[in-house]
Specification:
This protein is of the alpha+beta class and 123 residues long. A hairpin with a 3-residue loop joins strand 1 and strand 2. GO terms for molecular function: zinc ion binding.
Length: 123
């Protein structure tokens, strides 16, 4: 895996816009690029997917707004994008996987992403 940025914006899946310091087409970025770093988070403030908060800070031009618990529990808004199959998930679907795997394609997600929940989600 390389840290070299290949794009700062990509259209993936069914026309989903992904922004960040992207190093491949699987949502990895220059900040997080291990084999399991294959999710992107839709930021509440701009409704745009970024691989991580650092990419958002560098490119968005505004401060992060966290998703409220009530918004996440409504389970209507997709907020997680699988980098492998580009399927969108709401937070409850994503968090329901005890193995931290995509429920559609089976790719392993990074369990350490949960260490950053407080940046993205008010839970």
């Amino acid at each position: 895996m390389t840290e070299k940025v290949i794009a700062t914006e990509q259209i993936v899946g069914d026309g989903v816009c992904l922004r960040g310091q992207l190093v491949d087409e699987a949502t990895r970025c220059s900040h997080y690029y291990s084999d399991v770093d294959v999710i992107a988070i839709k930021f509440r403030c701009c409704r745009t997917y970024y691989p991580c908060y650092k990419c958002h800070e560098e490119l968005a031009g505004h401060e992060i707004q966290r998703w409220a618990r009530a918004e996440l529990e409504e389970a209507k808004t997709p907020v997680i994008l699988c980098g492998q199959c580009h399927r969108e998930w709401n937070f409850m679907e994503y968090a329901a996987s005890p193995e931290m795997k995509c429920q559609h394609c089976g790719v392993q997600f990074n369990p350490k992403c949960s260490l950053h929940y407080d940046i993205y989600f008010d839970i």
